[in-house]
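Entry 0007
Protein: LRRCT domain-containing protein
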Amino acid sequence: MDGCWQLLLLLCLSAVAEFGEANDAPLVKRMTNKLLQVIPPNDKSNVSILVIKGNQITLNETDQQALATYTTLVELYLDENRVTTVPAKFFSGLSHLRVLSLSRNNISSLDPEAFSRLDVLEKLDLSNNKLTDLCDKTFINLKSLKILNLQENPWNCSCSLLDTIGRMKEANISFGGPNVTCASPAEQKGRNLLDSINLCSTSSPVIVHTDHKSPTPPVTSQQFKEINNTPTTTSTSHNCTVSKRQKPLSGHTWKFTACIAALGLTTCILILTAIKGPSCYKSFHNYRHRRLVEDDEEEGQDTMPTETGGCESQQTFTFEELSHRIQEQDEEDGYFEDPYIKRMEDSEEEIQ
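Output (structure tokens):
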């Protein structure tokens, strides 16, 4: 009996051990090529590896809320989706995350706090995207980062990017592969990004050796963080858009200013015309009306007969008409008679 109880106890302990090992094993959740538009929430408590490849994920607010339910997640693969940008603190709820892959998306920009609170992240894959620049703040808090894949991106090898890459290289971060090449400027197109680090004269103080007898020791991740937090006078970028602001201005600024001034002057003239035009037209119309009234009044005064002048005009008209009639009669009779004499004779006849 004692032997049976001992055997049964051994079997129970073995079963418990196997159950514990099964629970400790990483649980993988795969959702590949499912045409998913959002990340589904966690339906199990111990998912360690989440694979969501070949879908239509864009990393919106719904995706962030869903990822917050994967509290035990260690590896996250979001390859071949439709991600264009990574918002600030998007993965902040995944405090145990060690591997993050965002390869083969359309990422063109990263928020400076995109990977905030990922203190144990060791590998970050940003290959095959559309990134042209990186900023220091994006990687300050990645204390455990060892591998950063940057292949197949159209990098703009400006001094700000090269300085950032140089400090990260001194922090013993590997950039994974020889295909990290420059796409611009034209003189550096096709050149290896790591080989272009020393081309800029405004390099970081941590990689410049002022004393050859005592070279600067390798920079650790903690020192990399402190250096980036310390203000310097170099041209190191402090955000992702500094390279765009440092773009030299063209030599035709005066032409642009002249165009703006001409446009402003034209606009002012149009506004004044629109405001003063109706009143000017009304004034002109009233002026013409007054002139016409004045002309009519002057013509009326010229043709209006006075008390004496009217009679004289009427008498003159009567005399001229009488003379004209008498002349016509004389011409018809064939002889001329003086109308004055005729009038005198008529007067004498009336007296008699």
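Curator remark: The first helix runs from residue 2 to 24. The mean pLDDT is 75.
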